[in-house]
Design goal:
It is a single chain. Among the domains are: 118-224, Chitinase A, domain 3 (Roll), CATH 3.10.50; 228-335, Roll (Chitinase A, domain 3), CATH 3.10.50.40; 371-465, no CATH class; 515-609, Chitinase A, domain 3. Helix content is 49%, strand content 17%. It contains 25 helices and 20 strands. Strands 14, 15, 16, 17 and 18 form a five-stranded antiparallel sheet that branches. The chain has a four-stranded antiparallel sheet with strand order 4-3-6-5. Strands 8-7-10-9 form a four-stranded antiparallel sheet.
């Protein structure tokens, strides 16, 4: 009777849960609940609609996605070692915010804000050493950084030591002597930031290690933050290996542009006509905000010139950097925002940052209390104290076959299985690098402390999905995304590239899709004004004169006068060529959107079919779409999909 009552209660609970979270659809019998579907639907639709047409359209897309994931799971993609490793990496990132102490975490947020309000300038010397380097290589790197520090302390110049042979391993030191300029929170790895902010001005830190190697830092200045700034720029590119003549021409061109701006020329017009920064030219030269609280940094010369501007709309004289000459316009300047307005953003950054690990000790202590931690280590560590030997420091020590018992080292939440002697032995075997030789009891005690913290955090991580639905959903999303990408690579994207015979057959069967439009094989002379266009037209009447000669003559006094382009131009897709009736030879000059054009046409190319090599890129893309559509048809036959439209159409309710 008790069993019958229990069964009835269980059935009632299941039915109650199903009513609360009904099933929208099933793929091969695996349910997709209303809450799961709604979460994904809202994430992919910032302006969601819940009418029948919108839901039907999304279900079709969602079904295709789920079919591909189902096929990937069927073929065992989620068991491929490299994908399991990738997912494990994401799992650890996603778990990090759940494995920290909230009180300590808030202290880190407050610390980050305080640092954002104050910038530090520092120089550094780096001696590279891999995170997993052998004790021998680690010691060699440490001794080398100590030797470099000693030279500076004896009177040698920090920058000179950084630049010398076998000085700093940071490539930029050859140019900047290790000077990193001013920076603030989140712009360096946290251990580096911590050392820079805690070292007094004028002093050199003790050697410390980051994932890049060993550093010493000299702090040269600290100042209140300059805030966050938005600027636009007009860049005349030079590059690092530019000739002196080209550099002089670029500087001259930049000064001419600056003079025109000062004379009243519109900023937007000059950027459109002359800036070489393709990423910003269509946005009137606007760059992402940089300064305090951002991860965006500019080279010091650019930053200093930008922050020197005081009024919105003010324009700087040309500024030289390794990239060329920049004219900078101030768009907006903001002082550091209030803590309350930045708190959420800072919290997100802290959770993703290395500094969050500092809060884990407090978190582990809370877990011990919550999970009734019981320590059994002292008596069960005795074997390790007695059997660890000098081979341990060489990575050759093993407990395999020697350790006969497997007693629990501690108990957590009533669980002993992951916390045994054998597990600790495995940890010791894998974590010998960087361990300093010492008395066995000291080494074992330190390693045990590290292992215990790691084991407790791993246990908590293993049960996060049962405690936090939002974490479980994110993990599922990453899992599906990783295996989906891999199977798409194999079944569609890479297949289209590697299957050359199939691609050519597809091209031959669909050749009518791949044709050239009407084009011009031409040289385009883009002139600053009508007088220059007239002069260019006159010069081009002489067939012996080439475009280089025209450029040399016209741009003798100003690099702004003329730009020359040579290509086979698609007439319809080139606005300044469309509907001009251009013919072979030198065509009359004309104006388009403030510029004057002289077009010398070598040939008018009539529409015609493309060769396979000419259409290969577009044909490959089309072939990928064809392969995907064909593959999806086969997936619909291989997998079962059931949609509960009654639940689906009530999604918005």
């Amino acid at each position: 009777m008790k069993k019958i009552i229990l069964l009835c209660l269980l059935m009632t609970a299941v039915q109650s849960f199903a009513q609360k979270d009904p099933i929208v659809m099933e793929i091969d019998g695996k349910p997709v609940t209303k809450s799961e579907f709604l979460q994904i639907y809202l994430k992919n639709n910032p302006d969601p609609k819940f009418n029948k047409a919108a839901l039907d359209e999304y279900v079709e897309m969602f079904t295709k996605f789920k079919l591909k994931v189902a096929e990937a799971e069927k073929l065992g993609y989620d068991t491929i070692p490299k994908l399991k490793k990738e997912l494990d990496g994401y799992r650890k990132q996603l778990a990090l915010p759940y494995l920290i102490d909230s009180v300590e975490n808030q202290a880190m947020v407050a610390q980050a804000y305080d640092r954002i309000k104050n910038e530090v300038r520092a120089s550094h010397i780096l001696v590279r050493v891999d995170a997993n380097a052998s004790p021998k290589d680690t010691l060699a790197a440490y001794n080398r950084i100590l030797a470099l520090k000693a030279r500076i302390e004896k009177g040698e110049d920090f920058a000179a030591v950084a630049k010398m042979k076998n000085g700093s391993d940071d490539p930029s030191a050859a140019n900047n002597g290790g000077d990193l300029g001013y920076f603030t929170a989140f712009q360096m790895v946290y251990p580096f930031e911590e050392k820079a902010y805690t070292t007094p001005i004028g002093q050199i830190s003790e050697p410390f290690r980051t994932r890049f190697g060993y550093h010493i830092v000299k702090v040269t200045d600290k100042r209140p933050s300059r805030g966050t700034i938005r600027v636009a720029h007009l860049m005349i590119s030079t590059g690092k290996d530019v000739t002196p003549e080209a550099k002089a021409n670029a500087e001259k061109k930049a000064m001419e542009i600056y003079d025109k701006l000062m004379a009243g020329e519109k900023w937007e017009t000059m950027v459109s006509l002359h800036s070489d920064d393709a990423n910003s030219v269509k946005k009137a030269g606007e760059l992402p905000a940089f300064g305090s609280g951002t991860t965006q940094r500019m080279v010091p010369a650019f930053e200093d010139a930008a922050f020197a501007l005081k009024k919105v709309g003010e324009i700087s004289k040309p500024v030289k950097t390794d990239f060329g000459y920049h004219i900078i316009k101030l768009l907006e300047w903001k002082e550091v925002a209030s803590f309350e307005s930045m708190k959420k953003e800072l919290q997100t950054k802290v959770n993703k940052d290395e500094r969050s690990k500092k809060t884990q000790d407090a978190f582990v202590a809370k877990l011990k209390t919550n999970y009734q931690y019981k320590y059994n280590g002292d008596k069960n560590l005795k074997w390790f104290n007695e059997h660890l030997d000098s081979t341990y420091y060489l990575g050759k020590w093993s407990a395999d076959g020697k350790l006969k018992s497997n007693k629990p080292m501690f108990v957590l939440n009533g669980v002993t299985a992951p916390f045994t002697q054998q597990e600790f032995a495995t940890y010791l075997e894998k974590n010998y690098r960087g361990v300093k030789r010492d008395d066995n009891k000291v080494v074992v005690a330190k390693q045990y402390k590290n292992w215990e913290k790691t084991a407790i955090l791993q246990y908590e991580e293993s049960i996060l999905a049962t405690k936090y639905p939002e974490y479980r959903a994110l993990l599922k999303e990453y899992h599906d995304g990783i295996i989906l990408y891999e199977i798409m690579q194999d079944k569609v994207w890479n297949k289209a590239v590697k299957d050359t015979a199939g691609l050519r057959a597809y091209f031959n069967a669909n050749q009518s899709k791949y044709t050239w439009p009407k084009r011009l094989d031409a040289t385009v002379y883009e002139c600053l004004n009508a007088d220059i266009a007239k002069k260019v037209s006159g010069m081009l009447k002489n067939d012996t004169i080439n475009s280089k000669h025209v450029l040399d003559v016209i741009n003798k006094d100003s690099e702004l006068n003329l730009t020359v382009k040579m290509n086979k131009f698609d007439i319809a897709q080139t606005p300044y060529l469309a509907n001009r009736g251009l013919v072979k030879g030198v065509n009359p000059a004309y104006e388009f959107e403030g510029k004057f054009y002289v077009i010398k046409v070598a040939a008018v190319l009539e529409p015609g079919p493309k060769e396979f090599t000419e259409a290969k890129g577009m044909a490959t893309s089309d072939y990928q779409n064809y392969l995907e559509a064909t593959w999806l048809e086969s997936l619909r036959k291989a997998h079962t999909v059931k949609v509960n439209t009654e639940v689906l159409y009530q999604i918005g309710n």
